[in-house]
Amino acid sequence: MNKKKNKFISDWGLPIIAIGGLFIGIYLSDKIYFIPDLSFCYSYPNIICEIPIINWIVRILDTRVITVFVIYIGIVLSAYLIFKKLGFEEPEDK
Length: 94
Hints:
This protein has about 90 residues and is mostly helical. Helices cover about 65% and strands about 0% of the residues. Helix 1 (about 5-30) packs antiparallel against helix 4 (about 65-85).
């Protein structure tokens, strides 16, 4: 690929895919029913879940959030590998 295509992909293509991948991950996590919806606070209620700030952090252990991250990483990584296979080179900052 030439420098113009590399710059376009690095400035517009990858950020659009990254933001779109996040929205797709959130949308698909609601549509997937074969993964059970388990949450740490609902499964094992304790004093940690009653503290608001820690409760927000502990929600990362929710299976829906983990599903969103897995879908997001899969989309972004596959797009990056496809671009690399097509000849994309990351521009060097000077």
